[in-house]
Design goal:
By secondary structure, the protein is mainly α. It has a single domain, classed as Four Helix Bundle (Hemerythrin (Met), subunit A). The chain is about 65% helix and about 0% strand. The radius of gyration is 18 Å and the shape is elongated. The N and C termini lie far apart (about 40 Å).
Length: about 210
């Protein structure tokens, strides 16, 4: 559920070309956050289909880490009401971007479970290329949409690494986790099932011999 501050701070990006390779290059340079979800799925499928798991301890450690990431995303997707209200309870009481935190855990988990050495440099490059930009953009957008609630909440709530201390919601509305919201608005349970299937694929590869 997943979402440039630099544009707001330093002016608008250059005009977008009409089409072709120039437009693609422009988007990769100035709007690359839009590609992160697609490329994230490409990464997860690639390490799953081409991974070579051979160490059970690494595989099962990866499963646990990836499962924590899926649970983080599942929890966050049932609380967030995108662009409507500022979510400050549930996972959002501990970290500003729990969906991104979940994504990082999933990337680490699949890298471990797959046994693919190349997953680590590719994953690190992906994270560094997309996530600082996406986090800055999301913070800037939420600050603009909910200035009174965002500032005190962001002041005490870390961006990516969850705080064990529950931060006090600062003016945001409170509600319970909603499976309906998670499924029909964000599709998260379906994504979890797909990733569970990919982990099963890796399990079969691990114990095929």
């Amino acid at each position: 559920m997943d979402a440039v501050a630099t544009t707001a701070e330093h002016g608008s990006p250059p005009a977008r070309p009409a089409g072709g390779a120039a437009r693609l290059f422009h988007d990769l340079l100035h709007r690359r956050r839009r590609f992160r979800q697609l490329l994230g799925w490409v990464f997860v499928f690639a390490v799953s289909l081409f991974g070579t798991p051979s160490v059970p301890a690494l595989y099962w450690t990866g499963v646990v880490v990836a499962a924590l990431g899926m649970l983080m995303r599942l929890a966050a997707s049932g609380f967030v009401r995108k662009n409507q209200v500022l979510a400050t309870n549930g996972p959002y009481a501990h970290v500003r971007h729990p969906l991104y935190t979940g994504n990082l855990l999933i990337c680490i988990g699949f890298s471990l479970a797959s046994g693919a050495w190349w997953a680590w440099p590719v994953g690190i490059a992906f994270v560094l290329l997309f996530y600082p930009n996406a986090i800055a953009y999301e913070d800037q957008k939420l600050h603009r949409l909910f200035p009174d609630a965002w500032e005190p909440w962001a002041r005490v709530t870390p961006a990516l690494v969850p705080s064990l201390r529950r931060t006090t919601p600062a003016g945001g509305e409170r509600w319970s986790w909603s499976f309906r919201q998670s499924l029909f608005k964000n599709g998260e349970p379906i994504y979890v099932l797909v990733m569970a299937g990919l982990l099963f694929w890796l399990w079969r590869a691990l114990y095929a011999g």
